[in-house]
Amino acid sequence: MQDDKNLSEIDIEDQKIIENTELSFFEAMIPVILLMAMLAYNIFWADGAALGDYSNQFILLIAGGITAIVGFKNKVSISRMASEVWENLRSVFVPIMILFLVGALAGTWLISGIIPAMVYYGLNVLSPSIFLPASVIIAAIISIATGSSWTTSATVGIALIGIGSALGIPSGMIAGAVISGAYFGDKMSPLSDTTNLAPAMAGTDLFTHIRYMTITTVPTIIVTLIVFAILTTTIDTTGNADVSGLLATIDKTFNITPYLFIVPLVVIALILFKVKPLISLGAGVLLAAIFSIIFQPEILSSLSTSNFKAITTSILTDTQITTENEKLNDLFSSGGMNGMLWTIYLIACAMVFGGIMDAIGALAKITKALLSIGNTVFGLFASTVASCLGLNAIASDQYLAIVIPGKMFKKAYEDRGLAPENLSRTLEDSGTVTSVLIPWNTCGAYQSGVLGVGVGEYALYAIFNWLSPFTTLLFAAFRIKIKMLTSKSA
Prior knowledge:
- The protein is an all-alpha fold.
- The protein folds into two domains: 18-93 and 342-477, no CATH class; 97-340, no CATH class.
- It has 25 helices and two strands.
């Protein structure tokens, strides 16, 4: 999801699955049950503030402490737990740096007029009647080209949220459309890290995997587009008169010119040429800072006494550009790098919990238990889906949700005469796409942080993401296009 180069950086394919014969299934589930109970209380009864603004982070750390106690009881050393936690934290170093740069990008793209220009031209082109399905298609195209749902959200995703909000479309719907398209493209792109990882775990090749994924993925995206087309007809938007007023306000506040699109085009070009995301996004921040001096001197002078101070403030902390329209005032604000800290803390705490769960052997124990109930072909597919969903929630990382079930279930698929692409497709249909539906998963935390929309707001509208596992189970239940091993390959 992040970038195809990250695979080699974190060596995720060499992930060792730690087993612990001392640990029982019940003991492995204790931290999970308590974590889910605490999170449910915090979300549904305490309005997300049971322990303050960072309640979810504290809950994950408490669950990590409970997991460590279970580990001590089962003879797991503190050094092993610390080692796994460190490996988990090390694996998300690049994503955390990307998040910081995305915060800086949002700030500099705001003061340079890039985001306002995207909104301005988008309002001229994208009408409310086609906005949601068009957002799915635009996000899908960018994601296929870049191989990254993260990059898609950080560029066109932010712009589409701005345009849709100006049209009066609920932000949860817009984010759901963007995420649906972005994850479709991510799944189907040969540049995507997860699209390369899944077949590597299952034992098939990349393009066989992509071709086999189309069987379930194409029907799912078609249904998604149909649903968004229907949803579009139910939206009570602001209408053309309000849009004209918004356009006039943006034009009055900023110097709007097509030259501003040079910056996002450069960023996308760098990503297409496989330049590392840190360098690509860093270039986007630097270019935007230069463009702000060239095109928006009045904005900079209104924000601070010097251009340098205005730019550094937009990169690091909150920036608010005031216009005559209250709706645009909410839209033209950014938290900079500081605005990403909540998300980064959540990812770090999730990695602590997931690392300790892995160290004590709980992840392997839970996955093995799921494997044991897959006595039929459908049961095997269902166990794989449940394992991926569970690991996205427990380990808080989509890579582990692909790697661990991939290694655990590979032989079971072979024993039942199923071709390896059945496993690789199921890993993607359930592990890759559902990661964004878990608030404390790295993907859920990233997308909600970048788009500025909570997971609870967009989850229902991320239709492609939650429909994909149901589609793969439907095809398995009716044995539709389930490829078997030939006698020669077996």
